[in-house]
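Section 5.1 Outputs to date
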Amino acid sequence: MDIQDIHFLYDLEKLLKSRKEEMPKGSYSTRLFKKGIDKIAQKFGEEAVELIIASKNKKPEEAVYESADVIYHLLVLLVEKDISLDSVIQEMKIRSKK
């Protein structure tokens, strides 16, 4: 993994912001944004539960797949709440120093 891999998350955040602003038809992200925070939070919770279940299984690839879903839905939730990925990373940095 290199720095380009991390930039992917920022690119995804940027794409999600544009989806929220432009609301293109046919986009899953658009459907989530149209349904609002309750649906977005529900989907995030569902994906988190699926990750918990997958992590208890013996196939690591299931946990990887569900982790990707959790991260995607977390980013949708953050964009919906107008919380930047940078602010979350800064909080993590602060916590790591304790």
